[in-house]
Design a protein that fits this description.
Shape: globular
Number of helices: 9
Radius of gyration: 16 Å
Oligomer: single chain
Order of helices and strands: EHEHHHEHEHHHEH
CATH class: Alpha Beta
Helix content: 55-70%
Bound molecules: adenosine monophosphate
Length: about 190
């Protein structure tokens, strides 16, 4: 089983690189952000709750997002592995993921940290907001999301270093160049 956590600040390229990993390694993809945006689109109760957090650039409560992740994981049959994109975002989520995988006799194979300087993140997200119209890609919300990343999510770097699963990836450069570094790291597992 190839279980990959793709990690990085908003705008670091997690979604783009996940698509390439899925294509090359044939594993399932869970993006918690995509799941929540789909719920908003469908107009469900969960979608309404999610929207109130996303619009403020805040994280959803751990318990809620962990339950969403568990049910998505259960929906995969005969899986060769999973890429976790946008999850975990807190230490509590990382611990829940570890426990969930352990229950299935599995573990995280590697955590890929896409490292991109802050000014570049800002430029990319503002551009994405203009092109895709994603509601939380506006300057005010992006700033809040980056604060949340630094306070609640970046402690996971040390957490995964402790687990021996951490892999730094230079997230600056061409999409192909970044993917080559990722593939080299995965192939070494
Ligand atoms: P993303 O598409 O991964 O950037 O996620 C967009 C937004 O969805 C985030 O800013 C959060 O409000 C929410 N979200 C996505 N994943 C999580 C998570 N693992 N924990 C809490 N909130 C999340």
């Amino acid at each position: 089983m190839l279980n990959i956590v793709i990690f990085g600040a908003p705008g670091s390229g997690k979604g783009t690189q996940s698509a390439r990993i899925v294509e090359k390694y044939g594993i399932n993809h869970i993006s918690t952000g995509d799941v929540l945006r789909a719920e908003i689109k469908k107009g469900t109760e969960l979608g309404q709750i999610a929207k109130s957090y996303i619009d403020q650039g805040q994280l959803l409560p751990d318990e809620l997002i962990i339950n969403i992740l568990a049910s998505t994981l259960d929906s995969f049959k005969d899986s060769k592995g999973v890429i976790f994109d946008g999850f975990p975002r807190t230490i509590a989520q990382a611990e829940a993921l570890k426990a969930m995988l352990a229950e299935r006799g599995q573990q995280v194979s590697i955590m890929l940290d896409l490292d991109v300087p802050e000014d570049e993140l800002m430029t990319r997200l503002i551009k994405r907001g203009q092109e895709s119209g994603r509601a939380d890609d506006n300057e005010e919300t992006i700033k809040k999301r980056l604060v949340v990343y630094h306070s609640q999510t970046s402690p996971l770097i040390d957490w995964y270093k402790n687990e021996g699963q951490y892999q730094h990836i230079n997230g600056l450069g061409t999409m192909e160049g970044i993917f080559a570094e990722i593939a080299e790291a995965i192939d070494k597992i």
